[in-house]
Amino acid sequence: MAEREGSPGAGRLLAGTAWLVLLLGLWLWGREVTDLRPGTSAPTTGDIAAVGRPPEVRLPPALRPLGGARPQRVDIPSMGVQAPVVARGLDGRGAIDPPPFDQPGVVGWYAAGAEPGAAGAALMVAHVDTETRPAVFYRLSAVRPGDTVRVARDDGTVAEFTVDDVQVLPRDRFDARQAYGVRKPGRAELRLITCGGTFDRADGSYTANVVVSAYLTGSGP
Fold first, then answer.
1. pTM over 0.90
2. Potential cystine with 162: which of 86, 89, 217, 218 (Cβ 3.0-4.6 Å)?
3. Residue 164, SS3 per DSSP
């Protein structure tokens, strides 16, 4: 999400509105939701656009879910991202508490949800930019199906995910089931989420969310 540095009021508003939409999906944790629509193309930040699955991409089979372990780092080679992961919960208003605004290079994991690599859909959220520079998920919408996401876990293992869908979901038509529901029963899945669309200065938030979906396809030390 975006934080406008030096503008405390804007930051508070973003915390209460830009992230509030994530609450709509919390009840889906652990549920197995199938027959979801593919992603749609839409403008995001800058000149980057998100797409759904190109028909020519061949995706690997899913790996059986791993045991539970907390994430420590997320690596996204196609973005050049290697970022620390911190556990986050809900803030005083009941919204997901994002990484601190002064740590734009940190990714937050919703610790009350699934652990990355375990069965279910694990949620990771991070800022797209600050008032002065891009943040860790600035190029999230440039990720494509077939790309790899690796999550280093505190049991010494690395869970490797393959991206199978990239969506831009407008806030005024946000579908929580589409964003957070488990795509296929029994899989270990991952969601990477940040802001997208355009920045509305009138209400201090972005108009959409970028949602990257991935599923477990490998593991190693």
1. no
2. 217
3. strand
